[in-house]
């Protein structure tokens, strides 16, 4: 992902997350911090994006994965997740964590397929809906 992709992915962020969407500034900040971000393209159209932050010598966090609704169930999210896991491995981070809404069963099942297990709950994590987040982790 580059800075010029941000405006094109914001409608996807809005479609998926509504009031809990990330702002352009949040994505700019992620890029400025040097976090690893990807976009998935169908031609020149962005159909998905994902980000990874390596936060310690041996730990990485999946910051987000988003796939536009009309491109879901085509393996885009799976490929983005695989790319993030490969980047974590490349950077020497065997422990990868993420937060996912407790009511997002499809995402939780995908993460479980890749060895993620529930390790905690963050109460009221997503705002303004006050939805809890399930913290999931995998270790190589």
UniProtKB/TrEMBL annotation:
Q: What is its EC number?
A: 2.3.1.266
Q: Per UniProt, which keywords does this protein have?
A: Acyltransferase, Cytoplasm, Ribonucleoprotein, Ribosomal protein, Transferase
Q: Which Gene3D superfamilies match?
A: 3.40.630.30
Give the catalysed reaction(s), semicolon-separated: N-terminal L-alanyl-[ribosomal protein bS18] + acetyl-CoA = N-terminal N(alpha)-acetyl-L-alanyl-[ribosomal protein bS18] + CoA + H(+)
Q: Which InterPro entries match?
A: AcTrfase_RimI/Ard1, Acyl_CoA_acyltransferase, Bact_Acetyltransf, GNAT_dom
Q: Which domain of life is it from?
A: Bacteria
Per the record, its GO cellular-component terms are: ribosome
Q: Where in the cell is it found?
A: Cytoplasm
| Transmembrane region(s) | none
Which segments constitute the N-acetyltransferase domain? Answer: 1-140
The record's GO molecular-function terms, alphabetically, read: protein-N-terminal-alanine acetyltransferase activity
Protein task? Acetylates the N-terminal alanine of ribosomal protein bS18.
> Which PANTHER family would you find in this protein's record?
AMINOALKYLPHOSPHONATE N-ACETYLTRANSFERASE-RELATED-RELATED
Q: Return the similarity comment.
A: Belongs to the acetyltransferase family. RimI subfamily.
Looking up NCBIfam families in the UniProt record yields: rimI
Record's protein name:
[Ribosomal protein bS18]-alanine N-acetyltransferase
- State the species of origin: Dactylosporangium vinaceum
